[in-house]
């Protein structure tokens, strides 16, 4: 498995965990900041980002965008598209983006 493939898979795994947090928040009408997982390409990262579920939803409405702790971005597989105080938004590029499309095509995120 090459670096881009590993990065895409790690970030998609974190995305699945965060989707469950988001779903639970939606079911219970919660929009206060919750601890979402950093969606960086480091499989060993366990850092959390306190973010409102509605903010998280705005980010992930774009298929190739992920929330990361500042400094966790990797220019080889993503570019920063937004910076906030507690997190950054990174968008997959190149092979990592293609790998996400091959492994996890999702109609929900076609923008």
In short:
With 111 residues, the chain is of the alpha+beta class. It has 3 helices and 5 strands; from the N terminus they run αββαβββα.
Question: Layout of SSEs?
Answer:
Elements lengths: L2 H25 L6 E4 L10 E4 L1 H8 L4 E4 L9 E6 L4 E5 L1 H10 L8
Antiparallel strand pairs: 1-2, 3-5, 4-5
Helix pairs in contact: 1-2, 1-3
- Total strand count, please? 5
Q: What can be said about the biggest beta sheet?
A: 3 strands, antiparallel
Structural class: alpha+beta
Q: Tell me roughly what share of residues is in helical segments.
A: 25-40%
Shape: globular
Strand content: 15-25%
SSE topology string: HEEHEEEH
**Which parts are unreliable, with pLDDT below 50 for 5 consecutive residues or more?**
none
């Amino acid at each position: 498995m090459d670096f881009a493939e590993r990065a895409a898979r790690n970030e998609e795994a974190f995305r699945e965990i965060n989707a469950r947090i988001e779903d639970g928040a939606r079911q219970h009408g919660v929009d206060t900041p919750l601890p979402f997982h950093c969606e960086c390409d480091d499989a060993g990262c366990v850092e959390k980002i306190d973010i409102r579920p509605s903010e998280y939803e705005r980010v992930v409405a774009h298929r190739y965008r992920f929330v990361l702790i500042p400094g966790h971005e990797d220019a080889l597989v993503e570019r920063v598209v937004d910076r906030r105080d507690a997190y950054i938004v990174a968008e997959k590029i190149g092979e990592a983006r293609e790998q996400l499309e091959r492994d996890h095509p999702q109609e929900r995120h076609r923008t």
